[in-house]
Amino acid sequence: MSITYTGSVGFSQNAEQQEWLDGPGYAYWYNKARELQGDPTVFTSEMVQKMKDGVDGWGNTNWYDKIYGTGTVHTIIYRQPEVVTECVSSHLSVIWMRR
To answer: In this structure, are residues 29 and 86 in contact, taking their beta carbons and an 8 Å threshold?
Structure first.
């Protein structure tokens, strides 16, 4: 009986990074669009300042970087020679990715 283990570790990153608005930038352009339509603004200057300061639940997280930034990839493949008993076989593969 033998057990085979194959493993690899690597890093991944998007080939092209997109630029997105941050929280205060989004608030500015959202308010500007509403003003042009004749609607009242939604974000006050106090809210925008809280976004910049990251207080009272008004964070300024770069979600694109959190989700699509550089990450690690760890692949583990464990194989046991085919065990066939009445048409039943066993095989296990695990792939783990963390971004």
So the answer is: no
Task: Name the residue among 74, 81, 87 with its Cα closest to residue 4.
Answer: 81
Instruction: Give every CB contact of residue 66 below 8 A, 6+ residues apart in sequence.
Output: 99
Closest to 62 (Cα-Cα) out of 73, 51, 50: 51
CB burial class (10 A; 0-12, 13-18, 19+) of residue 27?
buried
pLDDT per residue over 42-88, tens digit each?
Answer: 999 999 999 999 888 888 887 777 777 777 777 776 666 655 555 44
Question: Where are the alpha helices (H) located in 7-92, listed in sequence order?
Answer: 23-36, 45-53, 63-68
Task: Look up the pTM and report it.
Answer: 0.52
Number of residues assigned to the chain: 99
- Please name the residue that has the structure tokens 């493993």: 7
